Amino acid sequence: MTLAVRLRQVALITPRIEDVAVALRDELGLEPGWTDPGVGVFGLENRVLSFGDCFLEVLAPLTGGTAGARFVARHGEGGYMAIFQVAGRQELRRRLARLGVRIAWQVDLDHISATHLDPRDVPGAIVSLDWADPPSSWEWGGPAWRAGAPARPAPDRGLVGLEVAVERPEAAARRWAEVLGDGARLSGASVQLKAAGQALDFRAIDRRPGIVACRLARPGPARSSTIGGVRFDSEPTDHDKEET
Length: 244
Description:
The protein is an alpha/beta fold. It is built from five helices and 14 strands. It is 20% helix and 39% strand. Strands 2-3-1-4-7-6-5 form a seven-stranded mixed beta sheet. The protein has a seven-stranded mixed beta sheet with strand order 9-10-11-8-12-14-13, covered by helices on one side. A hairpin with a 3-residue loop joins β5 and β6. It is globular, with a radius of gyration of 17 Å.
């Protein structure tokens, strides 16, 4: 089934790229990742690690003066970007134009399209709305995910939510719900992506703005780890819940 919208990838930014990538792999049980040379256009390097059919990305600035370098200088390491998969790119672009959302960067490739939204219009993180063909593929995941998915991506794990710190939580939630479209339902300072089983929660800034927590479904008991400035809360999978 093709979902209208779902959270597919979350990116952290840090000056300690190898340390953070190793911690994500070892503490969260992620698959070994790959390095995408394409992010060099933004003055960044990265490591992309798969988690079921979702992804966690670690970014690091290569030079000063870039958006990523300015973020790290201002806020330190932490959650930087939320990448959503959408079902249709033309409908998406008409919606963004209607809402007056500015586009920071956009690209159309053979099997994927990406649209980065201007954070002045959609606060809390860099939001990207990406379309993939076929829907199971994910170009940013590396060669194994181009034009399809690996034979057996782990079905019992994935991204189930984010916590985003912003100045005006309810206003930010409303804006995210607008740009995410029909698959998103607003509830106070939370956006529910019910078909995807995901929730995006917004709260007032405490220490720093941006993505401050990420919720994961994976086998085993509930547990929490802070890696690269982001708290990762692991929830039991549905199968684990049934057994308990």
